[in-house]
Amino acid sequence: MEHTHIGGDVFFLLTGAILVFAMHGGFAFLEAGTVRHKNQVNALVKILVDFALSTLAYFAIGFPIAYGISFFVSAHELAGLAGGNVFGAQGLTLVKFFFLATFAAAVPAIISGGVAERMKFLPQSIATLALVGLLYPLVEGIIWNGNYGIQATIESLTGAKLHDFAGSLVVHAFGGWVALGAVITLGARKGRYTAAGRSHPFPPSSILWLSLGSWLLCTGWFGFNVMSAQSLDSVSGLVAINSLMAMVGGIVTAAIAGRNDPGFVHNGALAGLVAVCAGSDVFHPIGALITGGIAGIIFVRGFHICQERLRIDDVLGVWPLHGLCGLWGGIACGIFGLERLGGMGGVSPVAQIVGSLVVAAFGAVAGFAVYGVLKSTIGIRLDEEQEYRGADLSIHKIGASPEAEIR
Amino acid sequence: MEHTHIGGDVFFLLTGAILVFAMHGGFAFLEAGTVRHKNQVNALVKILVDFALSTLAYFAIGFPIAYGISFFVSAHELAGLAGGNVFGAQGLTLVKFFFLATFAAAVPAIISGGVAERMKFLPQSIATLALVGLLYPLVEGIIWNGNYGIQATIESLTGAKLHDFAGSLVVHAFGGWVALGAVITLGARKGRYTAAGRSHPFPPSSILWLSLGSWLLCTGWFGFNVMSAQSLDSVSGLVAINSLMAMVGGIVTAAIAGRNDPGFVHNGALAGLVAVCAGSDVFHPIGALITGGIAGIIFVRGFHICQERLRIDDVLGVWPLHGLCGLWGGIACGIFGLERLGGMGGVSPVAQIVGSLVVAAFGAVAGFAVYGVLKSTIGIRLDEEQEYRGADLSIHKIGASPEAEIR
Amino acid sequence: MEHTHIGGDVFFLLTGAILVFAMHGGFAFLEAGTVRHKNQVNALVKILVDFALSTLAYFAIGFPIAYGISFFVSAHELAGLAGGNVFGAQGLTLVKFFFLATFAAAVPAIISGGVAERMKFLPQSIATLALVGLLYPLVEGIIWNGNYGIQATIESLTGAKLHDFAGSLVVHAFGGWVALGAVITLGARKGRYTAAGRSHPFPPSSILWLSLGSWLLCTGWFGFNVMSAQSLDSVSGLVAINSLMAMVGGIVTAAIAGRNDPGFVHNGALAGLVAVCAGSDVFHPIGALITGGIAGIIFVRGFHICQERLRIDDVLGVWPLHGLCGLWGGIACGIFGLERLGGMGGVSPVAQIVGSLVVAAFGAVAGFAVYGVLKSTIGIRLDEEQEYRGADLSIHKIGASPEAEIR
To answer: Is C58 in CB contact (< 8 Å) with chain A?
Structure first.
């Protein structure tokens, strides 16, 4: 009986892992649809290879850093057949690794959308290894595993731990603010802003692929959030309905604020989902709706500010989407999670605000540091000729529609 | 132990909800691939925004109408932590809401394919709110929740309730017949039928996107049908195999009747799945195969009759697909569900025939009423110039392939 | 309680079935993206119709051959409500059928990619019926159900049965080697190799669709492998992490060996997954990584050898992908499954090597036989004119982008 119970948890976490893995397809197609045609192949390959490298780095270093568990023991122990080991029966911990590896790989996938169309392949791969192997697990371990006693300190100071149920901060704010550092270090695409200072936006290649990317992300996100409970005993329908309502809120406000623009509507859904992660287990559905609705507006306004005012050439708007909406999600958790606002309580507004700002700041510093070091050593940018031809032909020797192009 | 049991049901229903949510991506891409290029963006945005509005209307009004449960209580009660509440432990009812909300949102998604390429955005949004907030929950509550004692009356008259396990009638027939009213009220696209009365079919923009839509719908449909059991104690493999066999039947007959046309083959799979919903828990797999096979033929013939004989410009053929095949499914449930035809029994042919016709009639009346009122007040149709330019540029100010089009 | 336990297994197997069903969409889009534009529709329709015919053949003949269970009994018995029947409570065996039917249908889906662009529709349909109805179930029954006592004999000779947990041999090697016979029997596409003997590769139509196909296959593959446990009591996280690591290994080595070519990278992921199926329950994750990494190289090198040296016009490279990597997976299971190499043990290198070679040889013979008979009777190849126009217009009377093409 006990066995089946654990089998259920293995199945539950596996389903979550598969759903979040599918989100990486979403990242790939969202980027491929948003960049120009000449950089579509690069978007697809970059996401897939980054996923592979992330998994290797997280397997060898990252997961051990965050959770103190190493896989360099026999398969018998891993499968949980040897008595008294740390892996749980039926290899439960191995599925937990799979689930969390798909989270870790979201960090380079987020950055990828910001640095698209002019980044070299090798430095992006190295940055992935450094971020997923070392820096992300540091944040993850502190917030989700109580490493270094920092959560205990926060709790003793504010009365509650920094609450981040499904990673508005750990994954999205961290990834989005790293991306900000990366994008600024990299510089804008040629022609994006003229010498005279005028903005010249590049239209996306395909709304259909952009939309497919968004759908894959939205669908998988319910695994991202609900399966973060990590067991059938603690799964809650509240997380599901809150994710739904926040997504809906993001769609509606982004449709209005973005004047029915398809890019804003499809990214608005994601904005709501980014923001709801942290508090999805403590919000009332109406709190989630408001949180997501505000996120939709943050994305639309943030995108404009980022690209037009600050002149930061963040191609997919990953800093507003993951960075700003993730930050907002961390803070919103301290507001709409309060019992007096219909929430479940147990959160501290002070802890949430300070914690969210610290995670964002750490991400930005990490982004500038990692991409700065790479820039000053091996270089991070395609040369002008390569960028002009496009990353597809320059790096992959083939375009996205080879038959039509070769003719 | 009890707890895990409920956790399993939460997980089960959540998986169903995710699968049916993914079907909405399928609706979007099926429509985008079938309409002309200049209306693809509109198809995508319409489905996503309709989904969001549906969820809001169903949350605030629809679900309370159908099931007498309101969400305007504290998160503690929603999560099922407070003793003796109606929401079940671990927020079970919240996932049930999510699952059923994805069903409710199928109604505007079905209609969307019929009214494509010339419908204004605002009236479609209002129609969505009215249909999902008020009219659909009425049907749903009567058939699935026994509201107003109507099922009890049917049972006392015919010996069995109106059986509609997964919604051939509640969702598909209702949605398809509403769509008929909407499409007739709206009128045909400019140029679809010439003044001299000749039919001038518009070829679909992309078989690939049409196919992707169909695949997403087919895949999610197994959640639509099997998870309609709503608990692990009542889930049955019979529903799964019957859905499979009906889909297979639809593919084979539509391929033959439709002479290997890709549109017919891909929609034939859906026709079989529409028809099997009602009786998927009572059919023998061979009964399901026949039901689906007949549905494939109904779609191919119905599509031709609708578009060429009746000159109803139902763009995706949603009336033959959901309306006629749904009606057929409701009736077939009363035939192949009988024990003497290998089925599980417990169904009444009379109840199924009469009930199916009533649901279809109610849908048609609702369609004419809702779209008729909107037509005579705010108007429902793009003006000629807008229709000519396409809904994408007219409503969303951008086409589906912006980079190529702006060049 | 017992009931819920079985409900959990029904849900588990159903999820596996849905995931593997979705892989067929992956087969369709992988082929559509790799072939030339004029054959995309044919790819999509062929996969869908083959799936339907496979299911029929497997329902009527194949599953009964492999497992000795027939569905021609009442729905009551099928649903497991009649006492003492073979179908298990809650229709468990029916979902098992669904799950295994999606495996069986992979055989024609694999072949489809090899014979693309010049195969007639009817003989391909007949081959599907013969392969899935008769030949595949023979292999499946012998290896997975112990039919004819052959596994018992292997065990008595080598100390262990032929181990093929999730079908590197049963599905992939068999399908890939049948495809080799089919492709050779069919002959190369017109113009692929010039009369003077020069190779003239046809570039793929769309990397985006190729990539989507790969993503759908990768995602569903976790159901293919993990759900092969067939019950919650025997599910193991080890299978999940091994599948992940092998996929990652295939991506990395194919990216390097294939010089970042998108076709190689996306198929490299599949190569790793093909190879890991057999031993996914006995490998250490590092053994899985190595197995997948070698598979990535086998695919890249094998593709070149197949197409350029051997001049076999296997369009998608299904023989290197499924045939060679499947064969390698069967053998690798006997190496990295050994306890001294970190594995779980219980495998025999001799049994694995000999068994793998026999399955491959049987597949090749079956392929030459089935397609040879069809060639010498009804013919298997489009005529020159049809091939030149493309299978889409020749067979389906419509192209993949009808609106653009008809203009």
So the answer is: no
